[in-house]
């Protein structure tokens, strides 16, 4: 018997998130072994008159490929997949691997090569910029373990989050996006954090289920050289299968001049990948009412109610501050009282305190108004 929640999610992905039109080519990539959602998406694309193409990826096989990859092989791999991506109108990516640490023992130089020679041209430059795309996780025991819940409880949470009324959320986001477009100075304060920067003339973009599921953020980017001060992130994060905690950055004129964490040497290796890795490519405010605690899965964590993320690396084309990098690493600071609290100011006006919006035009984004 089919789970109606899966069919509803598939319909939302195809009809709302990427809005498949007759004759469009749709690439569906599944990383993992789950098939029910995959099959439901194929059915929904067929109903819309689209042409569906499938990529099945196994992380353990990918790990073996990366550990044995040469530069020539990586370039050829990227050329093949880039050619396919150029023929796609839509992309739906589902991540359902059983072990988030599968790539943790791939040598750092191999991961850098993968990020710069494969992921950057195929995904950052082609898929992100030239297709209608959405990416999501799929619930399994591994994700439930990261969230410290039972598998059944996590599935219930997952479908509450992913089948939220994103059209309603989209309308509520207008007020924040418009305010960000009018804002020059931003200041973020909290335990271990006092950070100032400008977002003048950068713009702002709403995220309400068209690119990510789950969703719930509005993003911009700092003027590249305007960031000064310190930020202390309080959500653990995974990068290339490695867990980082207690990350703290100090900025001078836009550049990360000091970076510490539970693995300070490794985090500085990542930030030394290229010049853009030590500058910020995204500033975003998260407010999904169902997501409250980090689970080391950035598609969920960056949407946590009362959070923000401040991202080293590549800027998005829609809010482009000119920063270019082979990395884009969303790092999350939660400002609710149970995580230490904190404030966000726009042009010296307090707009959010302890994770709750405090000016009338933004109250529509508080949790009770989005559920």
Automatic annotation (TrEMBL):
Q: Name one GO molecular function term.
A: aminopeptidase activity
UniProt KW keywords? Aminopeptidase, Hydrolase, Metal-binding, Metalloprotease, Protease
Q: Which cofactor does it need?
A: Co(2+); Zn(2+); Mg(2+)
Q: List the Gene3D superfamilies.
A: Thermophilic metalloprotease (M29)
Instruction: Give TM regions.
Output: none
Q: Do you know which InterPro entries this protein is assigned to?
A: M29_Exopeptidase, M29_N-terminal, Peptidase_M29
> Is Transit peptide tagged as a keyword?
no
Q: Which SUPFAM superfamilies match?
A: Thermophilic metalloprotease-like
The family this protein is said to belong to: Belongs to the peptidase M29 family.
User: What is the name listed in the Swiss-Prot or TrEMBL entry for this protein?
Assistant: Aminopeptidase
């Amino acid at each position: 018997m089919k789970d109606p929640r899966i069919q509803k999610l598939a319909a939302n992905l195809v009809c709302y998130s990427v809005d498949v039109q007759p004759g469009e080519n749709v690439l569906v990539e599944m990383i993992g072994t789950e098939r029910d959602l995959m099959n439901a998406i194929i059915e929904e694309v067929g109903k819309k008159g689209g042409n569906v193409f499938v990529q099945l990826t196994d992380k353990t096989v990918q790990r073996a490929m990366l550990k044995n990859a040469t530069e020539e092989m990586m370039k050829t791999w990227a050329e093949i997949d880039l050619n396919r991506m150029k023929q796609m109108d839509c992309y739906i990516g589902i991540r359902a691997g059983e072990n988030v640490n599968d790539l943790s023992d791939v040598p750092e130089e191999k991961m850098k090569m993968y990020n710069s020679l494969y992921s950057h041209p195929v995904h950052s430059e082609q898929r992100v910029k030239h297709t209608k795309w959405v990416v999501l996780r799929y619930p399994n025991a591994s994700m439930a373990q990261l969230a410290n819940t039972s598998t059944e409880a996590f599935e219930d949470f997952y479908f509450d989050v992913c089948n939220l009324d994103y059209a309603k959320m989209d309308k509520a986001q207008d007020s924040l996006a418009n305010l960000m477009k009018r804002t020059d100075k931003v200041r973020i304060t909290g335990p271990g954090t006092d950070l100032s920067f400008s977002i003048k003339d950068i713009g702002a973009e709403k995220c309400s289920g068209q690119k990510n599921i789950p969703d719930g953020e509005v993003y911009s980017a700092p003027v590249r050289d305007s960031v000064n001060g310190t930020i202390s992130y309080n959500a653990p994060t995974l990068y290339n299968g490695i867990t980082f905690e207690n990350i703290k950055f100090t900025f001078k004129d836009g550049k990360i001049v000091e970076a510490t964490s539970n693995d300070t040497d490794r985090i500085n290796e990542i930030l030394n990948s290229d010049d853009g890795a030590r500058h910020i490519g995204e500033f975003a405010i998260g407010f999904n009412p169902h997501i409250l605690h980090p689970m080391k899965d950035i598609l969920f964590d960056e949407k946590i109610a009362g959070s923000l993320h401040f991202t080293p690396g590549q800027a998005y084309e829609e809010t482009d501050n000119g920063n270019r990098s082979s990395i884009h690493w969303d790092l999350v600071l939660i400002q609710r009282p149970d995580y230490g609290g904190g404030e966000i100011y726009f042009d010296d006006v307090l707009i959010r305190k302890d994770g709750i919006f405090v000016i009338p035009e933004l109250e529509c984004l508080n949790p009770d108004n989005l559920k």
